[in-house]
Structures are given as C-alpha cells and as structure tokens.
Amino acid sequence: MIKVAINGYGTIGKRVADAVAAQPDMEVIGVSKTKPSAEAFVANQRGYPLYIAEINRKPLFDEAGIEVAGDVTEMIKQADVVVDATPGGIGVKNKKLYELHGVKAIWQGGEDHEVAGFSFCSSCNFEEAKGRQFTRVVSCNTTGLCRIIHAVDEAFGVKRVRATMVRRGSDPGEVKKGPVDAIVLNPVEIPSHHGPDVQSVLPEIDITTMAMIVPTTFMHMHAIQMDLEKEATKEEIIEIIEAHPRMGLVRGATGIKSTAELKEFAQDMGRQRADLYENCIFADSVGFVGNELFLFQAIHQEADVVVENVDAIRAMMNGAADAATSIQMTNEALGFHA
Ligand code: NAD
C-alpha cells in the first residue's frame, strides 16, 4: 500500500483524501489543518489521522473536541508521498521539509512550475512522472485544456489554439470572495497565464488564452478554437471525446445548456459532492469552419485535478505500467465512467 499524506485538508485536499482512500493500492496516513474548523471535524469523522501545522495550537483543537494525532512533521515522516494542497504560495515553503525527510511530494496549480520542475496531466505525460520525487499537478483550467488539446493533437495535429476562460468567482464555501455583481477581466492583459501553463505540459502547442471571472461558484466554461493540421469531421472529434476516460460528452438530448444543469445531473447520478472529474464537452457546440474546430467545455474546478493527483501518486511510486492502467484504476475506484 502506498502511504499518502495530505498536507492542507481544504477544497482540494479533502477530495484527494477521499479519492486516495477509495484506491485499492493506497492509504491515507494523515491529513493536516492549521486551526479547528468544520473540515477538521469531518477529518475526525472519516477516520483520517489529523495533524496540525503548529503543535502549540493543539489546546484549541482539544477545546473544540477535535482529536489531533501530532504535528505535520510527524505525518510527513510516515508518508511515501505528500500531496501538498495548501493555498497557492504556501506549498513552496514546505519544499525544504519534504527534501529534509526525503519524501516524494505533489504540489497543485497554485504553485509555479518551478516548485517541482515538472508539470503533470495524466493523459499527456504520465510516463515522464514515473519515479520522480517532485511533481506539480496543473490547475483545474490547465488540466481541462491539456486533456482536449492533447487528444485532438494526437489524432489530427493542432496548429494553433485560442481559448477564452469564463471562470467561477469563488468555490461554493468561500463566502468572502466575489464578484457578486460584475464580470471581471482577470487578467485584463492578453494572454492570460493559462496558455503558458498548458505549455508547461505540452511545450509544442501554440496557444493564446484570455480569461474573465463571473459571479458563479460551480464550474468554469471554456470557449475553445483549434486550427488543425489535418481535415477532421465533427463525428471524428466526438469519437475522440467519447473514447477518452477523462472527457464526457454532454448530449443535446439531455437538454443541458448550463453549469447549473450539469450540477443537477451530477447530483442525480449520485456523484459524491456533485463532483465532475471529467471535461464536460457540449456535443452540439463541436463544429468546424474549414479546418478550425470550435467547442465549449465546462470544467468543475474542485474536481478535475483530484483524479490527476491520484494518477501522479501512482506514477511517482511506479505503481502502474502506464497511464491507461492508472486512469482506469482511479476511475473505477471512484465509480465513474466518463
Ligand atoms: P483551500 O484554502 O480550500 O484549502 C487549503 C487548506 O490548507 C486549508 O484547509 C488550510 O487550513 C490548509 N493550510 C493552510 N496553510 C497550511 C499550512 N501551512 N500547513 C498545512 N495546512 C495548511 O485551498 P484549495 O482551493 O484547496 O487550493 C489548494 C491548492 O489547489 C492551491 O494551489 C490551488 O491553487 C489549487 N487548486 C484549487 C482549485 C479550486 O478550485 N479550489 C482547483 C485546482 C487547483
């Protein structure tokens, strides 16, 4: 069993913990928090040993009736791999600790590529992650872009990508973030950081991106255009999407035309936390003008990177022969088929 510690039990960390616990070849040896919170109670309730960043805060946890197993260093010492899901900018500060204890570590998209020197998306570069000490799983938007661009590139060659990201303002539980009533250009400058971030996984791809933030909490929406090298049809693109284990087709017959309806669908399907791990690509949006492919895809920001973290663990621990094997194991353990 691969021993996994999750440093930072928040939006991403709590999902990674549950996804790891569901795998037949992995176990959660601990999760961490900085202060007592609802999530800390949940960690106790789920039976994950809870470690804390500063042990002198233990009395606060004791007072709240939350059981503490020790400090973060004790957790790291027992782990084969640490998934660092602390807020962006904090994770990089933990690198020294991981180096000191010779433990493997995975960071998230809130950190720069340089933190690990290698950026990961399982359907694009699983092989390169094998045996590595450090890896960074790219952000939710970058993961969604990499999956579709790489799949289309392999089949038809992608000459150029133009993509506009309409991003959610905050995660559902973040009551102090916005915007509440605005469309915010973020950034105003073009290109946004998403294009270069895709190139950290797919260096050969010519991509330019723009982004804005809107008042919604569930999912981003991407409007994507790709110039293809070879001629392709809508049906061929749809076949690629249907065959991909991390992409799902939103069929016209469902009547779904929004992120709100996707959430309802995820809940009705019984997905834990209404999580959508796959790119949700609208079948009726897939179309061509000459060799230029157009499509809309919705990306569940809290979920798509979770399964990528599980595959990254397996790759770094040499726990699966190839990407397809790991992706299938991860998906099956979570009971989802894209
Ligand atoms: P979050 O704020 O929801 O959770 C972070 C957790 O880390 C919190 O539980 C906090 O208590 C804990 N923490 C803070 N400082 C700590 C420390 N020093 N030691 C241990 N724990 C500490 O953040 P999040 O949204 O889960 O983001 C985590 C990372 O994932 C970031 O890099 C972010 O950019 C990336 N990411 C987030 C999303 C998303 O939609 N939320 C999507 C993809 C990637």
Keywords, separated by commas or semicolons:
eight-stranded mixed sheet; binds nicotinamide-adenine-dinucleotide; globular; 2 domains; Rossmann fold; 338 residues; 34% helix; 24% strand; Dihydrodipicolinate Reductase, domain 2; alpha/beta; 16 strands; 12 helices; eight-stranded parallel sheet
Would you give an account of this structure?
Helix 6 runs parallel beside helix 11 and helix 11 packs across helix 12. This protein has an 8-stranded parallel sheet with strand order 4-3-2-1-5-6-8-7, with helices on both faces. Strands 9, 10, 11, 12, 13, 14, 15 and 16 form an 8-stranded mixed sheet that branches. It is globular and about 65 Å long. The chain has 12 helices and 16 strands. Helix content is 34%, strand content 24%. It folds into 2 domains: 167 residues, Rossmann fold (3-Layer(aba) Sandwich), CATH 3.40.50; 160 residues, Dihydrodipicolinate Reductase, domain 2 (2-Layer Sandwich). Helix 1 links the parallel strand 1 and strand 2. With 338 residues, it is α/β, with parallel strands linked by helices. Bound molecules: nicotinamide-adenine-dinucleotide. The site of nicotinamide-adenine-dinucleotide has 27 residues, from helix 1 and strand 2.
